[in-house]
Amino acid sequence: MIKVIVSFEDALVVSTVHQVLNGQADIEIIGEARITADMLGLAQSRAPDVVLMDMPLNDADVFDVIAQLRQQPEPPNTLILSSYREPSGVAALMNAGVLGYFTRCDEPHLLPHAIRAVASGLPCCSPTMQQRLVNWIAESAKPTVNHDLSPREVEILRCLVRDQSDGQIAESLQLSKNTVQFHLKSIYAKLGVYTRVGAAVWTAKNLPPFEER
What we know:
Layout: E1 2-7, H1 11-21, E2 27-33, H2 36-46, E3 50-53, H3 62-70, E4 77-82, H4 87-96, E5 100-103, H5 111-119, E6 124-125, H6 127-140, H7 151-161, H8 166-173, H9 177-191, H10 196-206
Parallel strand pairs: 1-2, 1-3, 3-4, 4-5, 5-6
Helix pairs in contact: 4-6, 4-10, 7-8, 7-9, 7-10, 8-9, 9-10
């Protein structure tokens, strides 16, 4: 069972979320909050798998909120559902540790799939937001050569932007899955990101396109 805490100021959004998730046998809403402090308290006391929240929350610094969630004894994964659609800001949120991002304009039936993906630790953006991010990356890409990445780490990043799982990367590069995960931790530390999405965004902006041979 995927345990979810819902945190929105707008009661109508909360009602819609309940309607969409009602009947999902593997998803349970275990708490609701209207303000940031209550949401953080619920996250600590009830140990949810996913926090589904708006951005911002009562003018709180959303990056500080994400950092506090990540510092929980059992940190939940975060899925944001918001009207905010600026791709540079969304990319920064993903770099900070948000795993999923959907806008209020997206189809509601996609929400259960997003919750399942985020609960499993997989990044998930709505098709609309994903396209906005791709366009933003293409428009703002300015290759940088000073990254201190090893050739092997660059290879892993190439696989990552092709949306390969850890197991698929291991098979492609003839490595063990544990070795791939070790390299990913090193990559995240060097790039200053926390998630696969953050690393993929960095790669698309800073490494020259890879040409298949």
